[in-house]
Amino acid sequence: MPLRKLSYLTLLGLALITAVSVYFVAQLRFNYNFNDFYPAGDPDLDYYQQYSARFGNDNDYVLLGLEAPEGHSVFEPGFLTKVDSLTRFIQQRRHVVHVTSPTNATNPVVEGFGVFNVPYLHPQEPARRAQDSVLVYRTPGLVGNLIARDAHAVTILFQTAPNLSKPPGDSLLAAVRTELSRQGVAESQYHLAGKMVAQSVFVDRLQWELVVFMSLSVVLVTVLLWFTFRTWWGVVLPLVVVLGAIVWGLGLMSACGVSIDLMTALLPIMLFVVGMSDTIHIITRYSTELGYGASKKDSLLIALKESGFGSGLSAITTSIGFFTLMTSTIRPIYNFGLFTGIAVLLTFALSFTLLPAMLVLLRKPQLRVPRAEGHSWDGVLGRLFRTVLAQRRLVVGLSALILIGSVASASRIRINSALLDDLSKNDPVKLDFAFFEKNFAGVRPFELALQPAPGRSIYDLQVLRETEEIETYLQKSYGLNFVASPVTIIKSVRKALNGGLLEEYRLPASEAELQQLVRRVKLFRKKPEFRALVLPDASAGRLTGRMPDVGSIRADALNADLRGFLRQHTDPNILQTRLTGSANLIDKNNENLTLNMITGMSIDIVMVTLIVLLLFRSLRMTIVVLIPNLVPILIVAGVMGAAGVSMKVSTSIIFTIAFGIAVDDTIHFISKLKLTLLHERSLFKAVRKTYLMAGKAVIVTSLILVGGFSTLIFSSFDGTFYVGLLIGLTLLFGVVAELTLLPILILYFYKHKPKEIRQPLAVKL
User: Fold this and answer.
1) What percentage of the chain reaches a pLDDT higher than 70?
2) Which of 49, 525, 545, 575 could bond to 483 as cystine, CB 3.0-4.6 Å?
3) CATH classification of the domain holding 93
């Protein structure tokens, strides 16, 4: 079949696949499901899902903080009237289950067979202001929870429908903001926090940043391609190939029912940057042969022949780098690794089908400077090669010193994360969350499942006493600023039966008194604040609370101490407990981060080792190849340690991805060296020739990779910022190691044994 006809058929087939992909891409949706970041398949997750089905989710709420005007107290009638109006407005909104506010908080009193709820605050009776404020500060659970300790702010907490999605959640938040504006509350005087708030902000920013960073990457790569090839086809053809691979990758992701989240949002940018490598190697070799006078057909065949082997191996190693992320138990990371790895292979396929087809159908291009450009690169690379060899002792010595310092600094890296890790310190959303950390109980939920021993009820006096002891520990030693449990119900019932007196807010002294209280519990069971603390049959209970977001390191230490306390002070024959909750699951991710990262890196290194062993049949050559790619990883680890960057969900993927990408150029280099050694007896000349042939493509692809990833440093998400910065640094250090350490190491180890490399290759080919 004629080459041009085959090219037309190839383009037609690829166009049909692309059309199908575009159809699926149009159906892609953005998603920020908090639950997706829990460790999939973990027994604790299964338990939490069962726990949530019985008691409700611990993060289906929104906190609305209102600051009183400067110089005024929250107890002033005008401010309380506004709070009460907002409370009523929110209570009437769709998807709001219950609202807890200072103006609807009541002190229940039982008289006869009825319960009278006496409000703590009376905005319409200014004369009772002093009396009300004294009662509020004496009542447990109000100050620090609904009213700030300095009496300059209040919180309205509204419980929402379970797992409320973004559209209705956004509508609810918009309605609240509109009402706040209507009542004259300035934006600086109110604060919103909760999963729904974070969900809304994250998805909106994901959509915006995806467009912005993709646009920046296209512009930056276009400029670099133009300065490299100085031809329109040298710019357009790589862009067409890579954009086609992105459409295919996103289409496949959509067809598999996967949405774009915080991790998969990086796929288009990652693929756009990484996918340029193969096309640049092909076009570089193609234009070089054209510059030396070869025909279009011969130039293309030589470019495909010489680039195919190295590009195939690099596509495998790069995709493996992404596929190893599938060892993660976090679903977004798993999906990101799977589909980006597949997309890398799709890019390779398009580079050797779509790109050659377009080059065949285009006229033979006229290079602006046919030979001078090649000589210019040869001259620069030749001088660099000579300088590196002349200063090899200095290069090796500096590398060793930097490596030692990096390893020492890397030992300071800690695995730590917080609930809003991906937002910068000065982000408005994070500042709002910090407001509740400073003035109220905090935003980190705490959950402890309470299971009475067989034959006991959650309302047994011994069970309640052990629960109260746990409550006391959690408030005094653990750091809970707000706590509620079945003990809260019994104490509240006792207080209500004794005229609402605060001194009666305690557990009963005897079983007989307790039984009288239990019979009255049904009067309180329907109260929203008590409904989710005990199952209707009293077979299980829940201890819930809130605290500041102390980070996973501190939380792990607190949880270890709590487990020790529970072992020593809780009798399993009376009460059994289990730590659970969304925050606990997020902390659990950190326990797996190190293992996942080590597993991923190990798989990546083993696969690269096997490839080099098959390529060179030499263990020493394998070590030589690995060193220039591991050194940049260790240096960046040192940078993380020195800068105090913690290891967390978003940064844990950096090393695996960086190694998989960085080794790409090394694979191209040694594959070209392999071909050169087939007809070059001198190892020195073979290395020098390879250096000149591969150097341009190595430098250009590295500049594009570093430039592309550098656009991510403008992200408002810290995780994305560090992915861009640290992978960019890794690749920058990698190209330096590639052009300095790699030729030195090859010549040092194989200077007198060229046959050790050449002979097996000749047999192989």
Assistant:
1) 92
2) 545
3) 3.30.70
